[in-house]
Amino acid sequence: MAGKDGTARKKGHTDTTLFKKIFDNSPIGIALTTPDLRFISVNPSWISMTGYTEEELLQQTVRDITHPEHVSGDLEQMRHLASGAIPFYRTEKRYIRKNGSILWGRLMVTPLRDTSGKLMYFLAQVEDITVYRGAEQEIRESNRKLKEAQELAHLGFWNWDITTGAVEWSDEVYRIFGLSPATFSPQIDSIQALSPWPEDHERDKELIRRATQSHTPGSYEQRFLRPDGSVGYYYSTFEGRYDTSGNLIGMIGTVLDITGRKKADEALRESELRFRTLVNQIPVGIAITRKTETGKDLLYLNERFTEMTGYAMEGITSFDTGATHAYPDPEYRRSLTGMFPEIFSEAEKNLTGRPRVTRVTCRDGTTKDIEFRYTSLQSFGFWTMTDISERLRAEEQRETLIRELERKNAELERIMHTLSHDVKGPLITIRSFASLLENDSQSENFDILKRDIQRITSAADTMQALLSDVLEFSRVGRAIRHPSLVSFETIAKEAAGLLEGLLSERCVTVEIDSGLPGVRVDRVRIRELLVSLIENAAKFSGNQPDPRIWIGADTGGPDPVFFVRDNGSGIDPRYLTRIFNLFEKLDPVIPGTGIGLPIAKRIIEMHGGRIWAESEGTGKGTTIRFTLPMRDDIPGTG
């Protein structure tokens, strides 16, 4: 055992000696620190690299000689090493030498623990890379200058030494200003004199001040006068030069002659102004788009387009955005955009596509019928839009008037036919019985004379009734007047009251629902309507032992549907649409001219409503339904 112990001690001594030689002779700086980073051993290379003596280093911590920008990072990594989260720590960092200069080192730190795993020391190895980092910085600077030179090719250069006031120009700068190095010496005052616009100088000074305060490059544009009196323009970029304390000591920059570009810009602005003035005078909406890979960018909308739709360029970033506003209904928008490939293809072939009409929702929520054409101009699209809403309304009114005229002509023909037929009968009767009256008067038989006079009177009454109904039908065709808001229940009761004698004679009961909605109507006309419908229902009560008429309304829809229902003789469903025709009589035995329901139909239509009849058949009663829209704008009011 004693021999083994001696061998172990000898081996340990040899290892320690070997480590000491490596430690002392290593070209890499090596330091041993406590867990709180206090130096306890440093090798000669580390002493040489930092400029401190061994005694001075052993009185300091790693933090004392570390550049402030690296301290927090170091401490964070040391905590990771101490916790065992990482096996070692490697980085490049700056140290501050004893003389204040910067030492760049490539550092690797390893934790040393005892057999129980307790952290005892940190072993730091540092390679001096100061020269390498300096060369690297020079390479970056060289690359920056090379890049700068490449970017500034064919430009004039200038350099201003603020400490001496000297300004240097390249030959290109002299050429831009139209000056000669032999006759012009560039100084700050003489350079500013080339641009006799004080406001420009104040602006340029402010730009330079901001750039130098932030230590960032800057740029500005400047007007100048050439020796021949013409105005030129240049664009200058500049960058400050600073000493180690951050003080501005000079500036370098470039000068680019942009006179041609400025004149082109001015000509373009004048051309664009003329274009905008012209386009804004055109009495149609105009939109200009640019074709892109993703769609069409919206470039311009003229004033007429804005007047027409309410939309302006503000808030519309693309053609698709405009479509979303103008066509809010997704289905309609999809159907329209689905046409675009055909529209674009058509324009590519023929330059301008055929006109199409869309219903556009304006900014205020109203809708307009817009006719548009698309013209393809290389990479641009030219859209012209015309509001044809009034034209379509006029055409619709024209068609309505034509239909109304045709209907009135047909009614007139029917009236003339009816008058020629129905008036002829009473006239023949009057003529015949007048002749009989003349003959019978000689017989002095007063009963026969009385019968003849009754027949003549009856025929005259028939003619009078027919002519009165025709006049009434004609009168209803005129405009509705004096509409007012009134309870429908009130009008129904008034109509039933006017027929009290007839209803009592025929033993007809009229039931009127309570709480019927109010309507805005011509009260007199609607009362006439109800009188006609109630009277008609009473006449066709048939053999019903308990004849009844119900007046009410179904209010489940957007507008109430009023009805007059009876339990009378009913109507064959085949004839439900014929009963509203002029002079249409389904039962010639029952008195009447066949004008009552056509008059009712016309009254309802003049109010903007519609009327129809329902019946399950003969003997099953009839229901007349009609609508009276709840609105103020009754057609034809005046």
Structure description:
- It comes from Methanoregula formicica (strain DSM 22288 / NBRC 105244 / SMSP).
- With 638 residues, the protein is an alpha+beta fold.
- The chain has five domains: 19-134, PAS domain (Beta-Lactamase), CATH 3.30.450.20; 152-263, Beta-Lactamase (2-Layer Sandwich); 282-387, PAS domain (Beta-Lactamase), CATH 3.30.450; 393-473, Helix Hairpins (Orthogonal Bundle); 477-627, Heat Shock Protein 90 (2-Layer Sandwich), CATH 3.30.565.
- The protein has 19 helices and 22 strands.
- It has a five-stranded antiparallel sheet with strand order 2-1-5-4-3.
- Helix 14 runs antiparallel to helix 15 and helix 16 (488-498) packs across helix 18.
- It starts with a helix and ends in an 11-residue tail after the last strand.
Bin the strand percentage.
Answer: 15-25%
Structural class: alpha+beta
Number of helices: 19
**Unreliable stretches:** 632-638
- Kindly state the number of beta strands: 22
Strand order across the largest sheet:
2-1-5-4-3
Distance between the termini: 134 Å
Please indicate the count of domains: 5
Q: The CATH topology of the largest domain, please?
A: Heat Shock Protein 90
Shape: elongated
Report the CATH superfamily of the largest domain.
Answer: Histidine kinase-like ATPase, C-terminal domain
Question: Largest beta sheet, briefly?
Answer: 5 strands, antiparallel
> Helicity, in percent?
40-55%
Domain PAC: 89-141, 218-270
EC number: 2.7.13.3
Keywords: Coiled coil, Kinase, Phosphoprotein, Transferase
Coiled coil: 391-422
